[in-house]
Amino acid sequence: MEFLSSCASSSSSQRFAFFNVQHQNTLSSRATVKVLPWNFSVVGLGRSTRLSADGRERILGCNCGSNRVLLFRQSWRYHSCLASSFDLISLNYRYVFNRNIYQVNFRRIRSSLGKFRQRFSVKLARVMVCVMLVMSVSSTFGGTPSQALTEENLLFLEAWRTIDRAYIDKTFNGQSWFRYRENALRNEPMNTREETYTAIKKMLATLGDPFTRFLEPEKFKSLQSGTQGALTGVGLSIGYRTNVDGPAGLVVISAAPGGPAERAGITSGDVLLAIDDTTTESMGIYDAAERLQGPEGSSVQLTVQSGPSVKQLDLVREKVAINPVKSRICELPGSGDDSSKIGYIKLTSFTQKASGAVKEAIDYLRSNKVNAFVLDLRDNSGGLFPEGVEIAKIWLDKGVIVYICDSRGVRDIYDSDGSSSIAASEPLAVLVNKGTASASEILAGALKDNKRAILFGEPTYGKGKIQSVFKLSDGSGLAVTVARYETPAHIDIDKVGVIPDRPLPASFPKDGEGFCSCFEDAASACNVNRLQLFSR
To answer: Catalytic one among 349, 463, 476, 510?
Structure first.
């Protein structure tokens, strides 16, 4: 508010007093006095204007004579409601100025402003203390403080985070994954390592995915040794049934060549009904695999259905050395030239050294002047996904190998740029059957869809999910379904399999020696000539 008043004697040196009292929304106030020159007498009474945009209000008033210092009897009332952001404070001011008491009123203004600042500071401090208390209580009950987590809780959280980041289904089977974590930390007992393992298994069971599972340290080590090419057991690869017809149980995908199961006559497609008198009707494949493995020299009893017959077999566990690649040269009768030689490669699993072994086999066969290849993937139950991709690159010049997909579509593409190709031009035939699964299906699908090979046999097993293995800090691990895959032609083979181009004779042998005999003996029931094998 600005006040203008002429304050002068009868002398010509009149002065005009300018009083400025300013109130702003920042809850600060100041009063200033300026004395300005005034060259003529002013008679009259000013009136109040409306509150201006900058928060000031002007009142002009003068009544001056030659013998009077100041005649200012204008009363002015200023009412303002100043509200903080918390709606705590309301102030009323009444100022009356005249020639004798204006200095007293200024002192009252300053006193009122001082009290206002003091009261506002106290109220504001109380509000801030309340806010801090609310935030502290919210923090206490809104989450679990890190310093309160035990070592067992931290292991559980490590497993939870692994699933959160890697699992293919981001709806987590239609549940709130964060809410499950909080409920488990509050309600699940985790006082011992066994209780923590139980809590992790219970968590994974809510996903409804039999391929995502927990591995205790011993099982994790056993899985690693299996992918590295050595395993103690009976040499069986098993899986879930892909159709509802037939007896309940687990299906045999393949039997390791030369292993106890193969020597006992177990073949792909047989149904494993019981292990040591424990039915497999509701048994998981990993529980069954654990029961099949054991100390070298120990025995296990299997109940197996092969066709209509059911038989019980007593097998002795032994260390099954998994040699992933075997090769053989097949010479066709007649011409005697180099064009009659075919290189046969049997790939039984995708271990860590599988791609290197395939390259060595190709080099060996080429050194013996073969110019066509047969890649046998029958009863190959899979293994390491990266090895399947690397072996596909050996045979492909350029092209897509596999599409990796999640719930939102294609997430990644694996392809060949030709840099790893060493056998992209020779004729190639691939043999598959219902024991061909997982990584071997990726390889077969890539060679078929890129028109690199002709597929012979029967539809493959149909495992279109990809699992990755994650090691936890205590030596245990998780096998997690991280993606599904599609072939280069965007075919989802899960529970369907890769469909071959042509069938094989029912009596077609599964070993290299028997395979070559089908070429060498034109009168045999399995005879296939070169033209039939490599022409489309």
So the answer is: 463
